[in-house]
């Protein structure tokens, strides 16, 4: 079927698929906070969670297992239950006439699916054919920052190292980090179950499957998704993705090579004027973004913007962003807001 | 006075200045473990610790406050009590005929003081004039890895991001990380006193003073000390130094640009054959170095050596090393071992 670009001009029937996960929970909170125009809200999750009741915006809502019938009459589905679930239900969702905003990686590199960061390429949202993909968390944070800089001069190459919190691996990983940390403090040694190794006072290279080129999937997502979102298929980007013992919010050390030297003050101004960015940069107090600054916040925090001493055309900067919020749930809702008539 | 290059060929009188700190404690343990030829061991610390007794190698040794008299008859002093203490006592130490191996940054960039990583430039140790400087921890770990690679082809530029543990800020910072983490787990909010911000499930850019160019001192140490140790004054290097909630052991994501493409297998072989390096690299199991692997270990662990997809002449790799051990105490003792006759 063919889709109208915009959602209907009335309170919507919205389904959240994966309503019990870390991102699902944040989605529900943000839908309420941002007064997203909802008439009916359906919560869908695995059989395991079916029957549970969640309080949302003063209403008690029973969680149902996903089924084709559940999508009947739905206008919009937010999915954050993983790629296989999104693939499984995409046709049912679209057949019911609902638009799918998908937080998984299932459709991100599909050339017919727009991959949208509202601060970067909002116009792409309206080209959808029933599915819009929400990018990977680290990619969202990075592109929000790269976009205004790329307007100063074309970006040639980006070298990124990430500091990714447990939240990126879900609510269970956050719980495990707390439990295993308590064990270490109690002098006990215990093994991780959710993550491959204990994150308690430890860190490790992101454990997503390795590609042929020995980059992990998380790193390849950053590379490929950044190119797609920035519409720069030739952009050179390399990433080292690392999981760190932080509960929530990801950080990134970013080295950006432009085709020519860019003055730091111009870069700072461009970032300061750009949407979705908060500069936290007090050189006098040696105070720059930290994960605790951005947990629960909408903006990507940026600081220590400086001329790279090793390369005339490069700038260095540091960013932090809430992985669950701007890195996932908020970005998905911002995409949906682009589809609202008169948005 | 002029110094003999080698230490006397007999059991030595050794003083440890800063005997109660994290590095001092590790020094004492390593001097015992490595059977360093000691006749008499003197433990020196601040007035606050004077009078305390430490057990070393079966002997009870009383801690004394440093004074010119304490250095009389001493052959070798290991100092790890900070730059101002090292500066204060350097003349007394050398006037007594003792060689100072200094862990502080006080003399590292002094052109008359060799800055030594035994795996990299051991020959420099024997050019000393009474003082040999032990490099900064992150620099030691990095140069151990850069050295064998630089023999494959000249290195043009290095981009590093660090993941530095609390141990780098001393024993008190490690204790604070544990205490503040327990507070977070107990639902309490409490403020840091040792570090400027709480590291509990948090991280921040290294808080050393910022230079004119907006790099912090820790980053400038990496840049300047690496150039001096590698004898590559033109080497381009940029670093982002980050403190992470790990108790012990630093990690580094390193991007290395050579003057020409280098095959990964050749780089891996060079690293594997080099002293002081352990390759931890199981691509099948997605298993690479972690801080917990190297805590208490002598070698720098390296893994995920891969061709940078963004630049034909670049390799990416990941390393972890024990900051207190190879990053400080072990390196200092290895320097001293270079000065032993028939070493």
Automatic annotation (TrEMBL), chains A, B:
BP GO annotations: 'de novo' L-methionine biosynthetic process; diaminopimelate biosynthetic process; isoleucine biosynthetic process; lysine biosynthetic process via diaminopimelate; threonine biosynthetic process
Role, per record: Catalyzes the NADPH-dependent formation of L-aspartate-semialdehyde (L-ASA) by the reductive dephosphorylation of L-aspartyl-4-phosphate.
Pathway annotation from the record: Amino-acid biosynthesis; L-threonine biosynthesis; L-threonine from L-aspartate: step 2/5; Amino-acid biosynthesis; L-methionine biosynthesis via de novo pathway; L-homoserine from L-aspartate: step 2/3; Amino-acid biosynthesis; L-lysine biosynthesis via DAP pathway; (S)-tetrahydrodipicolinate from L-aspartate: step 2/4
Subunit structure: Homodimer.
Active site per the UniProt annotation: 137 (acyl-thioester intermediate), 250 (proton acceptor)
Source species taxonomy: Bacteria, Bacillati, Cyanobacteriota, Cyanophyceae, Synechococcales
Protein name per the record: Aspartate-semialdehyde dehydrogenase
Binding of NADP(+), residues: 20-23, 48-49, 167-168, 323
